[in-house]
Automatic annotation (TrEMBL):
One of its GO terms (biological process) is mitochondrial respiratory chain complex I assembly. It comes from Acipenser oxyrinchus oxyrinchus. Residues 104-116 have a biased composition (Polar residues). Residues 104-125, 357-379 are annotated as: Disordered. GO terms for cellular component: mitochondrion. This is Protein arginine methyltransferase NDUFAF7. Pfam families: Methyltransf_28. GO terms for molecular function: protein-arginine omega-N symmetric methyltransferase activity. Arginine methyltransferase involved in the assembly or stability of mitochondrial NADH:ubiquinone oxidoreductase complex (complex I). Acts by mediating symmetric dimethylation of 'Arg-118' of NDUFS2 after it assembles into the complex I, stabilizing the early intermediate complex. Keywords: Methyltransferase, Mitochondrion, Transferase, Transit peptide.
Length: 379
């Protein structure tokens, strides 16, 4: 999965702009500006809850075409009176040189430069249309320390998974092999004995018979946990996902249709649902986690209904109105993206402690106020 998606020579993400009507799949930030605007409000509200730190890093993982960050920055600009003199900077973690160019174009116009030295951890830098400095990195380790709001939309589902099957002899890893009978054909096989992955990655209390584990996702959450607990900030992870109950979710998409994951590798997107229970375990409770809740719930809690009404009121063009309503339906309808997509947040323990003190938590029965968009703690 890693090779197929991110191999520097032939990886699917490295060469393609796969998003949108012409591509292989479409995502919420591409469907409607409202999505990014509501996430922008979430960022500002977490920054305010942290006591409005002077330096504010907005970090996005896998920004695709840059639409989400662009919508978030527009919100920050509109809330200038709230943002005051805070120094906002933008940090993008993107493996694809091709997509980083698309992002640079959308966020900065012509105002960005690639690094002279290819070993520079900042491989591109520029200034956004809103006047904020923006930097591109290959991995999170290169993003500077400091108070940060992290966004990951449809990012964790692209990180490689291991697949395991329970057998009479114990857990066995599913591997991919060349079919000896048919030329140029790949097939799934079960490892005849335990592998390093099958003896280390499964939880002792696992009840499923078939399990997918994404250790890179786990490591990323551990890194986010370290940063958020030490430097402050918050992370919002939104993806196809479940609370540790699904089994076989590995699949491919090409031209908006399901595609056999083993056929023509590199020509289709590969994805596996995010196991939020596993991600939560990886925090080791060193930060608080909220969710997963459905996209429908999250966007509703963030005020999507009011935002749609406001936009419709100020819009007279009938095709734009139609687009707004259709986009709303696509994102909110449980039959479409409303339920399959989940939202999950990480915040430092201090986030709730500070708030409850202010609200006289010592009064018996005073519930801890939730993080914006979420009504209760996770799982
Ligand atoms: N967030 C965007 C794009 C989702 S597609 C949206 O919702 O529209 C996944 C994005 O993650 C792409 O930008 C892809 O190039 C990037 N990506 C995938 N694997 C990555 C990895 N291992 N490291 C960094 N970026 C990665």
């Amino acid at each position: 999965m890693r090779e197929v998606l991110t191999n520097p020579v032939s990886g699917y993400y490295v060469h393609n702009d796969m998003l949108g009507a012409e591509g292989d799949f479409i995502t919420s930030p591409e469907i409607s500006q409202i999505f990014g605007e509501l996430l922008g409000i979430w960022c500002v509200s977490e920054w305010m809850a942290a006591g409005k730190p002077k330096e504010f890093q907005l970090v996005e993982f896998g920004p695709g075409r840059g639409s989400l960050t662009s919508d978030v920055l527009r919100v920050l600009k509109q809330l200038k009176s709230v943002m005051g003199e805070s120094a906002v900077s933008v940090h993008l973690v993107e493996v694809s040189p091709k997509l980083s160019e698309v992002q640079a174009q959308s966020l900065t116009g012509e105002d960005s430069q690639a690094a002279d030295n290819e070993n520079d951890p900042v491989y591109r830098r520029g200034t956004t249309n809103t006047g904020h400095p923006v930097y591109w990195y290959r991995g999170m380790e290169d993003v500077p320390r400091g108070f940060s709001i992290y966004l990951a939309h449809e990012f964790f589902d692209a990180l490689p998974i291991h697949k395991f099957q329970k057998t009479d002899k114990g857990w066995r890893e599913m591997l991919i092999d060349i079919d000896p009978q048919v030329a140029n054909k790949l097939r799934f096989v079960l490892a005849p004995s335990a592998t390093l992955a099958s003896s280390t990655l499964l939880q002792a209390d696992e009840e499923r018979e078939h399990v997918e584990v994404c250790p890179e996702g786990g490591v990323l959450v551990q890194r986010l946990t370290n940063r958020i607990s030490e430097d402050g900030g918050a992370a919002l992870i939104a993806d196809y996902g479940h609370a540790g109950d699904k089994t076989d979710t590995f699949r491919g998409f090409r031209g908006h249709k399901l595609h056999d994951v083993l056929v023509a590798p590199g020509t289709a997107d590969l994805t596996a649902d995010v196991d939020f229970r596993y991600l939560r375990r990886m925090t080791d409770e060193r930060v608080l986690s909220f969710g997963p809740i459905t996209q429908q719930q999250f966007l509703r809690n963030m005020g999507i209904d009011v935002r749609l009404q406001v936009l419709l009121r100020s819009c007279t063009d009938s095709s734009t109105r139609k687009q707004l309503v259709q986009g709303f339906d696509m994102m909110m309808n449980p039959e479409k993206m409303g339920e399959r997509f989940k939202f999950f947040a990480l915040v430092p323990h201090s986030r709730i402690a500070v708030q409850t003190r202010g609200k006289k938590a010592e009064q018996k029965g005073a519930a801890a106020p939730p993080v914006s968009g979420f009504s209760e703690l996770g799982l």
